[in-house]
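One-letter codes give the sequence; the fold follows as tokens. Both lines appear below.
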Amino acid sequence: MRTRRLSPLLSILLLMNACAALPTGPHVLVLPSAGISLEEFQRDDRECQVYASHQLRTEAQAGGSSATRLQWRYDMAYVQCMYAKGHRVPGGAPPSPPPQAVPPSPPSGPPRS
């Protein structure tokens, strides 16, 4: 009887743990372009963080994406926005995508006839 009470609670906890959290900020470095004040850069930074968050809302709600993948997509949207506003992205290359899951190897053994 005790396990019947714990089952719904355990199910809810497992479901909550399975959801990937939205990123809270960028994990990339962007520098202000020459002649831009700190206040302008900070305003652009806030706008681009909002833009990047909105790009992920539907994917995060649908589920199926890992936190690493969501962070990578957030960073890409953020970099694109900041670059479009004229700011510099050191290295010039976008962040590399997260590693993909390796598909399982085929079963070994003699072929079936």
Residues 6 and 105 are 38 Å apart (CA to CA). The longest helix spans residues 38-62.
